[in-house]
Amino acid sequence: MQDSVFWTDDCPRPADLPVTDAPSTVDVAVIGSGYTGLHAAMALADQGARVAVLEAETIGWGASSRNGGMMTTGLKEDMPVIAKRVGLETARRFWAWALASIDHVARTVADEGIDCAFDRPGHLYLAYKPAHFEHMRDAVTWYADNLDYHDMHALGPDELAPEIGSRAYHGALVDTRAGAVHPARYVFGLAQAAARRGVSLVEHGRVSQIQRTDRGFRLVTPRGLVNAAEVLVATNGYTGDVVPAVRNGVFPVGSYIITTAPLDPALQAELSPRGRMFFDSRHFLNYFRITPDGRMLFGGRHNLSPNLDLLESAQMMRRRMVEVFPALRDVPLTHTWTGRLGLTFDLMPHVGRVDGVAYAYGYAGHGVSVASYLGKEAG
Hints:
Layout: E1 2-3, H1 6-10, E2 25-31, H2 35-46, E3 51-54, E4 70-71, H3 79-86, H4 88-112, E5 123-126, H5 130-147, E6 152-155, E7 172-175, E8 179-180, H6 183-196, E9 200-202, E10 209-213, E11 216-221, E12 224-233, H7 244-247, E13 251-260, H8 265-271, E14 277-280, E15 286-290, E16 296-300, H9 310-324, E17 333-343, E18 350-354, E19 357-361, H10 367-378
Parallel strand pairs: 1-17, 2-3, 2-12, 3-9, 5-14, 12-19
Antiparallel strand pairs: 4-8, 5-7, 6-7, 10-11, 11-12, 13-16, 13-17, 14-15, 15-16, 18-19
C-alpha cells in the first residue's frame, strides 16, 4: 500500500502544463489552484482581465485532486434545517444553485473537452440506523412539497439489493441527479483551459504577505512580487494566515481515503450494481464508490483532525469497508492518503470580502460542484 494519492498516480500532472514565472502586474491575483481558483480565473479571463493563479505547491495539489470525485446534491447542512434558519424562499435559492453547480460542471467538462470520466450515476444516502431511515422517508416528502423536487426516493432495507451489495444498512435515499468525476483529470483539465485563456499559472508561489498599495495589493511570493488590483483567496481547507480575518472564518477537517486493487468486474457489479456514489448517515460518515478503473474507493474519518496517523487511518478505513462489504476482506489495498475539507461554523459556503480581499470557502465535502460554481460566481 502506497502513501500517495491514487488519482494523481493514475493521472499525473501533465508535463506540458504551461506554468509561468510570477508576473509583476495583473488585474487579479487568485491564491489557490483548485476548482474555485481555476473557475474564477477562467471567468475573469473571459471578461478580459489579466489573471495570475498563485499556487503554494503544484497545480491542483490540495483537495481538488484528493477528494472522492463525488458530486452529491445539496449542501452539508440539511435543507429543512436551512429553511428554518433563513426561511423557505432563501432555502429554495440555495437548493437551486446547489443543483445548478452540478450542471455547471457538466457544461464546463463538455465545453472545454475535459476527459475526466464525468457521469450522472446518482447517489445513495445509506441509513446507518433504523431511525435515520425514518428521517429519510420524511425528507422525500419535504423536498417534494417544499422544493418541488422529485428526483429522490426512499428504499427500505429489503429493497437495497439492486443498488448495493451490502446488508449493513437499514434503507437508503436515492437521488438520481448526483454526479461523479475523476478529480485529478478534472482539475488538470481546468488548468489547461485557464492557460488557453492566457491565465498565468504559478507553481511553488506561496503567498507570504499581502500588502496594501495605492493601486491595490502587493503579494510577496518566493517567485517574485505580484502587484494586483484585486485578490481572491481560494484555498478552502488549506487557508493560511496571510489574511487572518479570512483564516478565522474556516477551519480544516481531515478526510482519509483508501483504494483497493482493481476488482473483478463481477465483484464490482455485485457491490455497486448501478455505479452510484455512496455515503452513509454515521456521525463521522463513510463515503465510497467504484473508481473508473474498477477499484473500491472508501473514505471517512473518526474525528475532525487533519493530522491523524495515515497508517492508523487506513486500518480504520479498511475495517469500516469490510463491515460494509465483507467480500473485500482479503482484497489488497494499493493507496492511502488524506486531504482537507473546509468547514464554516454554520456549515454553509461563504463568499465575501474582508480587508479588501475577496474569498470563497466552506464547501464541507461538496466542493467538486459547489467550489466550481462559486469560483465562476466569484470571477
